[in-house]
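In this supplementary section we document a worked example of the pipeline. Step one takes a protein sequence of length 308 as its only input; no multiple sequence alignment statistics are reported here. Step two produces a three-dimensional model, which step three serialises into structure tokens for compact storage. The input and output of this example are shown verbatim.
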Amino acid sequence: MDIDLITNILYAMVRTGTPLLLVALGELVCERSGVLNLGQEGMMLMGAVIGFIVALLSGSVFLGFMLAITAGILMSLIFAVISLELKANQVATGLALTIFGTGLSAFIGTAYVGKPVDGLEPILIPFLSDLPVIGRMLFGQDLLVYLSFALFAAVYWFINHARPGLTLKAVGENPEAANALGLPVMKTRYLAIMFGGAMAGLAGGYLSLAYTPLWVENMSAGRGWIALALVVFASWKAERVLLGAWLFGLASILNLVFQGLGISVSPNLLATLPYLATIVVLVILSSNQTRSRLVAPMSLGKTFHARG
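The serialised model returned by step three reads:
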């Protein structure tokens, strides 16, 4: 295989995996607090459409990203109030949020379908971007890809080394015991949900402002669901989320790989590979229930009832 083809594949793999990495990091923090939010797809789409409209009307991509994050946070707060305050089922609430966000984003973005904006240009890091194979992959990307690297490092450090990260894990494992010790269970879960919403909104903004860049209805194309499976695939560990996001990104561009190798395969069949991989991962992990219980936060998806 030609080295230029390998370089281009790795470059595209990282770009394609970036929105998955962003939304999966947010969901990882959310689930570590014991909250299962299935509304990632809806939050991504709202972030994508709001960010795109703001950037198109204002001429500022930066402002578009800020409003995309805000849209994701506001959507997540809807989920937080219903699931935490009203004690509604988290799975049903998350599914409703996805349906709501999908429909609302399509309605809001009707007049903006297909209108392009100026996306983000790659920022080449001197000398490093000239390295063979990995140079363009890691050091020839746009600003949001570099930000995803920084966010990954921040989440990894937060969960494994920061004191608030230990609080997050304690709340996710046993919120009743954490509450008895005086830890702020509800505050922790609210902040975790909001962070997940911010990351989903940012991922949506990346799709419509950098990766494409334009707005198309349902442009997230199931990435929110893939990110949910990715968190499980990663066993709720940040370092595995990064690897998994890039692997799923690679699966999404296999049509380019096969074309470069001269192999004739239906692009429609190849387009199903990320979703087939998602199903396979979930089946494999669910087949060992003991292992799943050992790695998943013990209170994941369970409603917390504070006692006096």
